[in-house]
Amino acid sequence: MDFKYSTCCFLTVFLLCSCRDPVRDNFPGIDPVPVVYSMLKEGERLEVRLSWTAGLDTCRLKFIEDARIRLSVNGEYTETLTHSPKGLYSAICTVAPSTRYRCEISIPGRETVIVSDSIPALPDLIDVKHIPIAGRDEEGFTYPAVRFTFVNKPGEKRYFEAVIWEIRKDCEFVKNPETGEITSDCTYRSCAVQPGVVTDPVLQGEGLPVNVFGNELITGNVYTMTVNYTNGIQSRTDQGDWVTDSFPTVLELRSVSYDYYRYVKSKYLYQKGFEPEFGKQSSAFSLYSNIDGGYGIFSGYSASFSDTLNINR
């Protein structure tokens, strides 16, 4: 037998046999670190959820059930939060605008974790309108928009978020087994829609397709912004055009803290890292955290709401 041929056969068999054992990932142990999550919403009770960091092979969160959280409001101690299962700690007080909140989180065997943030003043909405057809996307579908005017203070750094809610009617049809009569039980639910094509210059200046923005590019005392959106529901008109269906709509304009602003933008990049576009390499982004001595977020907002908007085409 030819030496080169026999050597090639030997190497082939060797490589095939050597690759039969499965690759095992041995994740090194990590020192757990506290994770704090608290989204402070004006008008709602202040709540904090605590858990520990975990390895990649961990399926369930391990909550912190033995912490002690002291709450201070505008620099004065007010109360100690009440513990509930699954690492939830609740206050009696409700979150108010133009107020600073600070929590001292004591965990046995750990250094005290201190978190704080200020809730901005309520935004001042002047006018809100719904635009059934604001433009067309790359696929030719029309999309709606909400145009609103709000007060700005040029000498003060402010951050906002525009959230568009659709009020949809969900019906469950039930057939009576005796009479065969079909009845419907209908309820209304609100759901936030997705941002659409970004055309507003202030939103374009943010560089991401999310509806959080600062007022650095706004020079006047008032500003009118147009936010395009999509809900993924289209229908054909009598003229043969495909349009995005509109539902009763409410605009929520949030006045958000700087930490909230940074967290939302980092969250978008973090999620995009798990959903790379076809043919492109994925990138890993870290979630923004303002927790000294841990991870997570402690931030919030105050909000103003419009009336239910007219959606007639």
Structure explained in plain terms:
This protein has about 325 residues and is mainly beta. The protein folds into 2 domains: about 50-120; about 125-305, no CATH class. The protein is about 10% helix and about 45% strand. The chain has 3 helices and 20 strands. Strands 1, 2, 3, 6, 7, 12, 13, 15, 19 and 20 form a 10-stranded mixed sheet that branches. A 4-stranded antiparallel sheet has the order 5-4-8-9, with no helix packed on it. It has a 4-stranded antiparallel sheet with strand order 10-11-16-14, with no helix packed on it. It is globular, with a radius of gyration of 27 Å. About 25% of the residues are buried.
Percent helix range: 10-25%
Q: Quick one: biggest sheet? A: 10 strands, mixed
Count structural domains: 2
Terminus-to-terminus distance: 84 Å
Question: Radius of gyration over alpha carbons?
Answer: 27 Å
Quick one: how many beta strands?
20
| H/E element sequence | HEEEEEEEEEEEEEEHEEEEEHE
Give start-end ranges of low-pLDDT stretches.
Answer: 3-20
List keywords for this structure.
4-stranded antiparallel β-sheet, mainly beta, 313 residues, 3 helices, 2 domains
Outline the fold blueprint.
Blueprint: H1 3-18, E1 34-41, E2 45-52, E3 62-63, E4 68-73, E5 76-80, E6 82-84, E7 88-94, E8 99-106, E9 113-119, E10 125-136, E11 142-151, E12 159-175, E13 182-192, E14 194-195, H2 201-206, E15 212-214, E16 222-230, E17 234-236, E18 242-244, E19 249-256, H3 258-274, E20 295-305
Parallel strand pairs: 1-20
Antiparallel strand pairs: 1-2, 2-3, 2-7, 4-5, 4-8, 6-7, 8-9, 10-11, 11-16, 12-13, 12-15, 12-19, 14-16, 17-18, 19-20
